[in-house]
Amino acid sequence: MPYQYRGDIAHADVAFDAWAETLEELFRDAARATMQVMAENLDGIRLTQTVEVKLTQEDEEMLLFDFLNELIFYKDAKRLLLIPAELTISRSDSGVELRGTLQGEEIDPARHEMSTDVKAVTMLRYAVRKTSEGWHATVVLDV
Amino acid sequence: MNVPAALKRITDQVWELPVSYKEGMLVPARIFASEKLIREMDAGVFEQVSNVATLPGIQRYAYCMPDGHWGYGFPIGGVAAMDPGSGVISPGGIGFDINCGMRLVLTNLTAEQVLPKLHQLVDRLFARIPTGVGCHGFVKLKPDDFRSLVQQGSRWCLKNGFATQHDLEMTEEEGCFSGADASHVSDKAVERGYNQLGTLGSGNHYCEVQVVKPENVMDAELAAAFGLTTVPNQVVVMFHCGSRGFGHQVATDYLKLFLSVMGRKYGIKIVDRELACAPFQSPEGQAYFSAMKCAVNMAFANRQVILHRIREVFSDMFHASPDELGLRMVYDVAHNTAKLERHEINGTRKELLVHRKGSTRAFGPGAAGLPSCYAKTGQPVIIGGSMETGSYLLAGMQTGADAFFTTAHGSGRTMSRHEAKKTFRGDKLQREMEARGIYVRTDSFGGLAEEAGPAYKNIDEVVEATELAGLSKRVARLVPIGNIKG
After folding, report:
1. Best exposed site among A117, B36, B209, B473 by fewest CB in 10 Å?
2. Where is the Archease domain (chain A) (predicted)?
3. What is the pLDDT of residues B8-55, one digit of tens each?
4. Would the pLDDT of B359 be above 80?
């Protein structure tokens, strides 16, 4: 599994590590780890709605912070369970830019096995770093 | 055992990490706990409470309550009072769920009257109070109306037929923090929250039907003053929820803003990014204080419209008006806030910015700001236990002055959610609880497993520690019979 939940940080919250060869894969996996806290079976989400997303930040770490918060925002504002379809991340002089599409559908309690609401991405132990094997993220979600 | 060697025992219930424990500590850190609770405390509590002690402007001590556990920024159960002139305000000292809090409501029904209809009652509460991930509320508002609501809190509910004047009087700050200015909240925060008014949420948020058994009344005089024990085996309703997506977005917005200005503009260095802060007397600090008050008011209004719906359900079920059923509030307490209050420091009364993160204000008898009916008793304090193990009503004590009149807020977790989910099965837990006389409805068996009783500290030990430390006094233990959770 490209992400793994941890029980050794912040007992009241949910922590996970994600690893990937590319930044796009890391963002996709971290998004899935975040959404799976709320919806237990991501494969049960029908991809009937598409949301375009464009975010810019000064570095990869804050870009992932914004990206995960975007997913949490759509869950509250539109009741949408979204997972990344296509993502492109590019670096320029002004920072790092993410463009992509998210796909999913509105929460349907009859079909989706829902679990615990995610309120926010916290800064506790939060880290995104490049290693010799690729990218690694540690995220603690407030639930 | 995680207890640092530097931890000193001050009294049976008070423990201290001296300023020498960590570089940058400005005051010592104090933890209220019995010896057993301190030995079981998360390592994160010692790390985080000592981090809080490094924040600019902190007064007297950084505190942690007996239910303290590992959170982010402050420990959950953390308390810090800042000098409003030289100190900071920190979203990590308040939490993402701003004004997450508890409300306790009386009925004049007995357990004998309610038990035959319990399943129907809990099912109806579950159907009528939206719960679970991303739920939308039953009060339909436009974004502009919502901006008005968050400036008024419970007053908006009174104007719109969701509250009584008595409800407002029985709510901390009468259900509205003054100075809330919606121009300081983002469109995103409004968009995330305007359709969530009247929702419970998930996680440890719940609405519980409880019984006051005569043998569980510890202080008959205070119990009577709070309206408990008017009938034998009296049924009461307790619920726990907060400011929902609106408050979460306000906290996220300002956490990001503070991270960007804290070092660059104000030269503040912190030991943990989750303690991001700004000088209280700065444009950013004041904007957050005002936006936070909007989220506080949203939470008061959220609990108020949920109370309205509880009244409708009971009225419908028992064919009597809410007044006839005695559906009166005992009190509404806030957990995650920062407030300007006057406290004594070195013999002088002084205005302080008191951060309470997962802790409860607990004013003693005679304190300004309490309803007149509680002037002699002290403030009612509502402490919710796990769904399996019961809850407590307590009262604030005069001896709580040292900790800025603050006490615990719940049991406090001992097991991570991840571990609890691996250890317990929600459907099995639901059946076992029903066999023990607690009927639970939930949107999520996974979420239910996370809230299993053994994942929490022993509530009896936690409240006993608050009483022995002089923070709050036990009035009655409340036994659950029905529960809805997200």
Report:
1. B36
2. 11-143
3. 999 999 999 999 999 999 999 999 999 999 999 999 999 999 999 999
4. yes
Q: Is residue B429 part of a domain?
A: no
- Number of structural domains, chain B? 1
Coil, helix or strand for A137?
Answer: strand
Using CA atoms, how far apart are residues A119 and B205, in angstroms rounded to an integer?
13
Which of these CATH numbers, 3.55.10.10, 3.40.50.2300, 3.40.630.30, 3.90.190.20, describes A13-142?
3.55.10.10
The model's pLDDT over B411-434, given as tens digits with 9 standing for 90+, comes to 988 888 888 988 999 999 999 999
Chain segment A43-65, per-residue pLDDT in tens: 999 999 999 999 999 999 999 99
**Burial (CB count <10 Å: 0-12, 13-18, 19+), residue A28:** buried
| pLDDT for B61 | 98
Q: Between the CA atoms of A124, A129, A134 and A139, what dihedral angle is there, to the nearest 10 degrees?
A: 10
CA pair distance B1, B8, nearest whole angstrom: 15
Q: Which residue has the higher pLDDT, B386 or A100?
A: A100
Which residues are bridge partners to B67 per DSSP? none
For chains A and B, count residue pairs whose Cβ atoms are closer than 8 Å: 139
Question: Which residue in the set B97, B195, B422 is minimally distant from A119, CB to CB?
Answer: B97
For the question of residue B409 being annotated catalytic, the response is yes
Domain boundaries, position B265: 8-414+456-485
pTM higher than 0.90: yes
pLDDT number for residue B1? 67
- The answer, yes or no, to whether residue A110 has pLDDT greater than 80, is yes
Q: Does B272 touch chain A (CB under 8 A)?
A: yes
Q: What is the CATH number of the domain that holds B232?
A: 3.90.1860.10
Whether B98 is in a domain gets the answer yes
* Sequence-ordered list of residues with C-beta below 8 angstroms from that of B45, at least 6 positions apart, any chain: B31, B64, B68, B69, B70, B75, B77
Nearest C-alpha neighbor of B263 from the set B281, B279, B252:
B279
